[in-house]
Amino acid sequence: MTLGFPDRRRLPRTLHPGAWWLWALGLATAASRTTNPLLLVLIIAVAGLVVARRRGDAPWALAFRLYLLLGAFIVFSRVLFRVIFGGGQGDHILFTLPEIPLPAWAAGIRLFGPVAVEQLLGGFYDGLRLATMVVCIGAANALANPKRLLKAVPGALYQVGSAVVVALSVAPQLVESVLRVRRARRLRGGRQRGMRALRGIVIPVLADAMDRSLALAAAMDSRGYGRVGALSRRARLVTGVLVLGGLVGVCVGVYGLMDGSTPRQLGLPMLVAGAAVAAAGLLWGGRQVRRSVHRPDRWRLGEVLVICCGVGAGGLLYLTSQVDAANLYPSLNPLAWPELALLPSLAVLVGVLPAWLAPPPELSSPSPGDPDEHRPAGSGAPALAWRRTPGGDVRQPVPPSATHERTTP
Amino acid sequence: MIEFDRVTVHYPEAPGPALRDVELTVGEGELCLVVGRTGSGKSTLLGAINGLVPHFTGGHLHGEVRVGGVSTASRPPREFAHLVGRVGQDPLAGFVTDTVEDELAYTMEQLGVPPEVMRKRVEETLDLLGIAELRRRPLRTLSGGQQQRVAIGAVLTAHPAVLVLDEPTSALDPTAAEDVLAAITRLVHDLGVTVVAAEHRMERIVQYADRLVHLPGDGSVLAGAPPEILDVSSVAPPVVELGRLAGWRPLPLSVRDARRRAAGLRDQLRERPRPARGRAAVGEGDRPRLVARRVVVRYGRVPAVREVSVELAPGAVVALMGRNGSGKSSLLWALQGSGPRQGGTVSVDGTDPAKVSAAEARALVGLVPQTPGDLLYLETVAEECEQADRESEVPEGTCRRLLDRLTPGIRPERHPRDLSEGQRLSLVLAVQLTAAPAVVLLDEPTRGLDYHAKASFGDLVRELASEGRAVLLATHDVEFVAGVSDRVVVLAEGEIVADGPTADVVVASPAFAPQVAKVLSPQPWLTVSEVRDALAGAEARV
Question: Where does the record place the ABC transporter domain (chain B) (predicted)?
Answer without folding.
Answer: 2-242, 290-518
